[in-house]
Amino acid sequence: MSREARLERLLEFLQRSPTPWHAVYAMAERLDAAGFRRLDESQPWELSPGERIYATRNDSSIVAMQLPHDRLEALRMIGAHTDSPGLRLKPNAAQAAAGWLQLGVELYGGVLLAPWFDRDLGLAGRIHVRHPDGRIEGVLLHVDRPVAIIPSLAIHLDREVNNGRPINAQTQMPPVFLQGGEGADLQRLLLEWLEAEHGLVGAEILDFELALHDVQPPALVGVKRELLASARLDNLLSCFIGLEALLESDGSQAVALVANDHEEVGSASACGAQGPFLGDVLRRVNAQLGEPGEEGFIRLIQASRMISCDNAHALHPNFTDRHDAAHGPGLNGGPVIKVNANQRYATNSATSALFRDLCREAGVPVQTFVTRADMGCGSTIGPITATELGVPTLDVGVPQWAMHSIRETAGSHDVEHLTRALIAFANRARLG
């Protein structure tokens, strides 16, 4: 599989995935095309050795598995998350000021606000409608043209703006949406878009979960196209790489890919990493293909390994002092092992050793990140999944700049680096 073809698939995936619901839909399409069978959590499961399956929850989290051809004894698990920080619409979003209809927003996750100003914004998410026959359905909306913008205040009206002016999310972030639209019906506009996108006629909107997104397409940047710039690289990049590794694995081993929603807000939800989704799926699979019972499940988990993939902070050339001098990962320098003595990352020397050996086997470079001792450290799904399941876990990620910005940057070569390492993991016969 060529690097160029993989990058083209990645750009298409990023463009099609403005929300977690769209990301899971796009991933499910590729799984369907590859022969995976979709399972309904509310129905009985009948599984066969060697089968390829997947299940979704809330339409925003997904677990996909290559089942073993023999007895289930160990799993190679790859973790990621589908959500990204951004601006979500409030339920009663329409608000008017100075002759403009604006959209009331709330922050989702730790948003880097300044880059949102003066961007061409589209609208996307999930809308639940009632059809004329009374049927209720959730449908996806993706308005991928500019329909809103958050204009900056001119420097002439705020001479101190470049001296660190704080941004008030309540008063300064609502985008302008429609001139002279003080009395406009937002739901009518949404219905018009749904009719154009899905052909829905006569439907009634019951509720929605919508987000603003940058309509600028992802791009390869740099003289040698060595950079990848896009919205939502944290963490759709890991979702894509994990899916590529699963689809390109040779099928000889049991492999699971889990992509959870709600990591950016703590993971405490029914479909988040702190919730029961992954455990529910694994218990049902183990009951049919492994050693049944709680002891059998514990033995399975302890024989398995999890590589949690979430992007890492790359060394920024303008802010080199923000990294520990010995732990500044470079773009295109290979995947980054993330270490924290206070367990903000789940890495330990045993799981790190396994990953270093995988990188050696795959012929890719590997790096390490530890935050400065005088700075706080973020976290990810790795420690949460390890806590919930007890599975030995490693936290790794592709290095990137501008994490939590509306447009982030990573190294285009690192996509191939981490994919190859994860394929080696998926095909690995011995994990211990």
From TrEMBL:
Cofactor(s) it depends on: Zn(2+)
Transmembrane portions of the chain: none
Pfam families on file: Peptidase_M18 (PF02127)
One annotated GO biological process: proteolysis
GO MF: aminopeptidase activity; metallopeptidase activity; zinc ion binding
Alphabetical keyword list: Aminopeptidase, Hydrolase, Metal-binding, Metalloprotease, Protease, Zinc
Cellular component terms (Gene Ontology): cytoplasm
Enzyme Commission number(s): 3.4.11.-
Family: Belongs to the peptidase M18 family.
NCBIfam families: PRK02813.1
Protein name stated in the entry: M18 family aminopeptidase
